[in-house]
Amino acid sequence: MFKFLRFIFGRKKPLLSYDGNISSPDGRIICNVRLEDGQVYYSVYKDNKIIIRKSRLGLDLRGDSPLLNDLMLVRSLNKSFDDTWETYWGEERFIRNNYNETAFYLAERSGKKRLFTLRFRIFDNGISFRYEIPPQPEFQRLVVADELTEFNVDLNGYAWHIPAYQPDRYEYNYSRSPIYELTNSVHTPLTIETPVGYALSIHEAALYNYGSMTIRLNRNNILSSDITPLSDGAKAYVELPFNTPWRVVMIADNALDLTTNHMILNLNEPPKESFDWVKPLKFMGIWWAMFVGEWTWAEGERHGATTEHAKDYIDACKRLGIQGLLVEGWNNGWNGDWLQNGPTNDFLHPVKGFDLPAVAKYAKENGVEIVGHHETVGYVDNYENQIEEAYRYYANEGIHYVKPGYAGAWMTIQGRREYHHSQLGVRHYQMAVELAAKYHIMLDVHEPIKGTGIERTWPNLLTREGARGQEYEGGALSPSHTTILPFTRLLSGGMDYTSGIFDLTNGTKRIATTLARQLAYYVTIFSGMQMAADRPKFYEEIQKDAFKFIRDVPVSWERTVPILGQIGQYYIVARKDRNSDDWYVGGVTNEERHRVRLNLDFLDSGTYEAQIYRDGEDAHYRENQLSIIIETRRVGKMDNLDIMMAPGGGFAVRLKKL
Ligand code: NOJ
């Protein structure tokens, strides 16, 4: 502590006012920081155009005066950083982390003379900052009543948003509206098209032990942070030292450039231990059959998770070249109305018809990974009572993947009803990730906390569902949804969209896509775990040829090259396999037909066999959904492919190096 004080007070006299710039390494982005009349503000420019006007920074505290006014600048320290790191898995094998940093050490001039630091990191593709509060003799803990961070963007820009504080958490369709309409809180990443043509996304990185940040207009009509409260209204209870999550504004010349922004990962720490046991996975599931009503989660005649079904699916995985199998409804607690049953889920005991050790053994003998399942229904207390034993149980049976779920509008934590995205929710999700790592378990979290890049530190967190996924098909999804996700939700990390539904015309779940589009998702929607969600007979018998793409497509990539995109209209991306010289391309369109000339100049030199899966001329997401053309051609980097995406359609191409 004293060392810290000596360090920050140094020899220089504190400044009562300050006006200085931090520039991005390429000089195009400038962040201006000012101390005026005891308050700190920042503003942001790109190419001399204003992106964020003068915005206030500060924290309101419960039972204490706010950390906001009466400040002086004791010291500031600059640093530049440039490093390239290798991911365990992801959209890129190597990520460059390059920024200029300034830390502003601030102190109150009177009263308790409390200290805090504002640390800014300015990248070529955005700005970030956080509050850091050291422990002080009379200031050891605090209760955040409100975070006063503003993002004073032009209100005439348009935002793509989903509502916060709603029962279905992040599982909503996106709306586009002018920023001046954002009077109710919305989730981040909040993607914005500015009036002068830039694309921004406001988000956060390294969310630990704090409420998740939502965004809304404050009383002064400025876009600002709204931290998810706890049930007593406080935003966070913290012991010092404490750093808030990074506040991030990604800044791009156009929306497509946002999709390769890796600031969120860069603002997280490298892992402290080796995670070389982590492996991305493609998996099928005893799951969709429940959705279409053939099987049930509950026990009974049509129970899905039986030993026999599991063994059949394991055989199918083996034949189809799919490495994993998710089994839902295997444990006690599903009978009756499971959403209303209360905290009855028991993660230590399989139901009578499901011999877990026998299934696990059979899977192992056949080289298939079981993906376990924990539906907590949001009863976190009940889950935390069992979680370690439940992980150990799975680990002892050789089960290394778990999909936990937190269905329900609330979490029950410490006997209280809390938001999933509150500080207590965030802490629970984190505890689960760290405990899973201890048992070498990899996670695909449904109803999760949003991604803030912590998978850099915890690579066993392979993916999350955490957005409206394919289970909402059958009426609640339109084709435009998956042309919005790459520019919004997917900026926060991968998503298990539960792709690969081939039974598109089923009466219970009619799907609003074409068949070719289901294949495109494996490229357009990145996820460290990719599901092939339909039943095996659709892959083995009914659409055998289309399935070949799912078998071939990798989960983890060497490089990602976005090709074309307009939010809500279409998105095309090329990715290179991490373990071969092959490239893959996926494209999706909204309800409109879209013809593209796909330039293959991203390819390396040499000849490739293009295996093309595209919509038939008469394909449409409402009729002729299964109309698909599968063809091969020899191509090189000088070639183009002309491809028509049908309304609600898409395409997938494997470019196999010859
Ligand atoms: C709700 C989830 O949304 C769904 O995907 C899952 O199958 C059920 N919970 C059961 O866990």
What form results from the Cα inertia axes?
Answer: globular
CATH class of the domain at 2-266: Mainly Beta
In percent terms, what proportion of residues is strand? 35-45%
Query: What structural category arises from helix and sheet content?
Result: alpha+beta
User: What's the average pLDDT?
Assistant: 97
CATH topology of the domain at 2-266: Beta-galactosidase, Chain A, domain 5
Radius of gyration: 25 Å
Helix fraction?
A: 10-25%
State the low-pLDDT regions, or none. none
List the ligand species.
1-deoxynojirimycin
Q: What is the compact description of this entry?
A:
By secondary structure, the chain is of the alpha+beta class.
Show the helix and strand layout.
Layout: H1 2-9, E1 18-23, E2 29-36, E3 39-46, E4 49-56, E5 59-61, E6 71-86, E7 94-108, E8 115-123, E9 126-133, E10 141-147, E11 158-161, E12 175-178, E13 190-193, E14 199-205, E15 213-217, E16 223-227, E17 236-239, E18 242-243, E19 246-252, H2 255-258, H3 263-266, E20 281-286, H4 288-291, H5 307-320, E21 324-327, E22 331-332, E23 346-350, H6 356-365, E24 369-375, H7 380-396, E25 401-405, E26 411-413, E27 416-418, H8 423-438, E28 442-445, E29 461-464, H9 481-484, H10 515-524, E30 529-531, H11 536-542, H12 544-552, E31 557-566, E32 570-577, E33 583-589, E34 594-599, E35 608-615, E36 628-635, E37 640-645, E38 650-657
Parallel strand pairs: 20-21, 20-30, 21-24, 24-25, 25-28, 28-29
Antiparallel strand pairs: 1-2, 2-3, 3-4, 5-10, 6-7, 7-8, 8-9, 9-18, 9-19, 10-17, 11-12, 11-13, 13-14, 14-19, 15-16, 22-23, 26-27, 31-32, 32-33, 33-38, 34-37, 35-36, 35-38
